[in-house]
Design brief:
The protein has 413 residues and is an alpha/beta fold. It has two domains: 241 residues, P-loop containing nucleotide triphosphate hydrolases (Rossmann fold, 3-Layer(aba) Sandwich); 123 residues, abc- transporter (atp binding component) like domain (Coagulation Factor XIII, Chain A, domain 1), CATH 2.70.50.60. The protein is 23% helix and 33% strand.
Amino acid sequence: MAAAVEIEGVSKRFRLYHEKFTSLKERILHGGRIPYEDFWALQDVNLRIEAGESIGLLGHNGSGKSTLLKCIAGILRPTSGEIRTQGRLAALLELGAGFQPDLSGRENVFLNGSILGMKRAAIAKRFDDIVHFAGDEVERMIDNQVKFYSSGMYVRLGFAIAINVDPDILLVDEVLAVGDEAFQRKCLDKVAAFQAEGRTIIVVTHAADLVRQVCTRAAALDHGRLVAMGEPNDVIRTFRDTLMTGDDGAGVDDPDASPFWHRVRITAVEVVYPDPAQAILLPGQPLELRIGFDTCDNRVDDIVAGIAIHGTLGQLAYGTNSHLSGQELGTLQGTGVVCFRVADLPLLDGTYRVTVSLHTRGGLRYDHWEQHVPVEIKAPGRDVGVVRLATKIQVEPGATLGGRGALFRKDAG
């Protein structure tokens, strides 16, 4: 398979100037030299993207992913290294990039189309498709100056232009996460159509679910260096574990925050995986969470132990406690362990954070660790969301709806 994009040893340096000499005297005193320091946004990046692949670029803010995309697009030139592309390239790198605010939407369509290499006749032929894709709101404002457009109208029109220049390679920087739900769905449908046609797509995004949904491979950057490349789930796991963490003890409440701290405290939490040598949980495997406690020699008869599992974006996936489940702990004194066993945790691939808590039946807190315990789930597949459901899909030729359940219809229009 031919490579659509080849990146060999690419580095990009920016010069950061901390002072600016405006007077002739200052310039003479400093010999015409302005102090600066080098900032390397990219360092020796090597990446080969095959034709027809969809690649997701992940990284924290300042990791170099947008700089790399601009180098591929030819907006920036690498300080060293080489980038080769094959075929027509279209880039939507930032909101309203290339729009002239004093021109109308119609004039900007022709201007941007020309910049992307289209002839005026070709733009005119596709003009209606561009405006239709951008939506009714843009269509009504198409002959008004774009400086009066909302941010959503900007991005819809920009994306509509980029995808209608018939690109072989489409570069997208965060745009798929912008706009309302209907526009995002329309964008994803267009991306899927491009994939079916064998076009190459490179997406910069912070949305891990989007990478799982639309990308065949992913790459992670950290401080300008390529640190992971491969199957999306594996790269996302590296991105979250290595690049987005690094806290030590973060999330554990301050002992002084709870007046009940000295009565009962959590000493440690143990995550027991089925295979101790491989700290991951596979579909269908049981999870065991063991919460160590110490009552500090107090005799306590109202302890409730609880857990809450949070998704990769912090959303609550599941929560329970000993009182809600009708499994009272009785009277506790001294040290011990409260064990939660889950026979099968139906969660999608990712690193989840578990909150553990000890409190009274009335809700007064003894000790609480907020999203402090990581649990690693490895669930093959590209479904999105939090919960993994066993789903079977089949076709029933000749079948009709009605008679087997509640029937819903949508009014025309």
